[in-house]
Amino acid sequence: MNINLYYLRSSLLDFFFPRFCVACEKQITEWESAICLPCFWSMPRYSALQMDHLRSKFWGKVKIHGVFAYLKFQKGNAVQDVLHAIKYKNQRELAIWLGQSMGREFFWNVDAIVPIPLHKDKWKTRGFNQAACLALGISKIWNVQIRADLLLKKRNTVTQTKSGGRLSRFLNLQKAFVGVPQENIPQRVLLVDDVLTTGATLEAASVVLLGLGVKEVYIACLAAAD
């Protein structure tokens, strides 16, 4: 396509069908993916020194070889707006784009990327799995296969942010995940989810993966709460 025609078409689309930032609600350009660049760069991020604090959520519970979180979640901040838009406003392309951004920030030598699965009822309601979109973005950067066939969610559990303390959340998730035996089990996997709070969801899924024969589990989340 002629470059001038491309810019003309883009300008017309922006004029007749404007898009707005999911955080500040200002109009965004064609080069921005549902969030404006000022909001994107202003969102708080975890430093490498803070990753040990996140990893400590799993100490004495399940052996995790590494934990990465990209953004800091706090109630009312732009990160919460982004997470809400991805989950409830069908912003799957934003999730893929953010997954790619995550993939440029860290790297572990893993054999496969495993997204936290959705229960089939939530899949029917939402139409997609936000963790799988994040995993796809990381996969595009790392060139590592996605293995969504290793885990199933058999129980439609209570939303984790509303299910009380860490123990009650873990009990809520017991037996929620089941492993699917395969001939080719990857030895090192990156387990991906959108939010890390108490770690109960990721702990339960990690236990199942290790039970399948996975040797090392690493964790990556778009956002985490202190």
Number of helical segments? 9
The secondary-structure class comes to: alpha/beta
Q: What is the name of the CATH class of the largest domain?
A: Alpha Beta
Q: How do the SSEs run, as a string of H and E?
A: HHHEHHEHHEHEEHE
Q: Main beta sheet, described?
A: 4 strands, parallel
Identify low-pLDDT runs. Answer: 1-10
Mean pLDDT: 87
The total strand number stands at 6
Stated plainly, the CATH topology of the largest domain is called Rossmann fold
Number of domains: 2
Give me the Rg, rounded.
18 Å
The percent of residues in helical segments reads: 25-40%
Q: Shape, please?
A: globular
First and last CA, distance:
48 Å
List the strand order in the largest sheet: 1-6-5-2
Family: Belongs to the ComF/GntX family.
Protein name: Phosphoribosyltransferase
Pfam families: Pribosyltran
Keywords: Glycosyltransferase, Transferase
Structure report:
This protein has a four-stranded parallel beta sheet, with helices on both faces. The protein has a two-stranded antiparallel ribbon with strand order 3-4. It is α/β, with parallel strands linked by helices. It has two domains: 1-42, no CATH class; 44-224, Rossmann fold (3-Layer(aba) Sandwich), CATH 3.40.50. The protein contains nine helices and six strands; from the N terminus they run αααβααβααβαββαβ. The longest helix is centred in the N-terminal third of the chain and has 14 residues, at 3-16. Helix 8 (166-173) crosses helix 9. It has helices spanning 3-16, 37-42, 51-55, 78-88, 92-103, 120-126, 130-142, 166-173, 200-212, and strands spanning 66-72, 112-115, 151-153, 177-179, 188-196, 216-224.
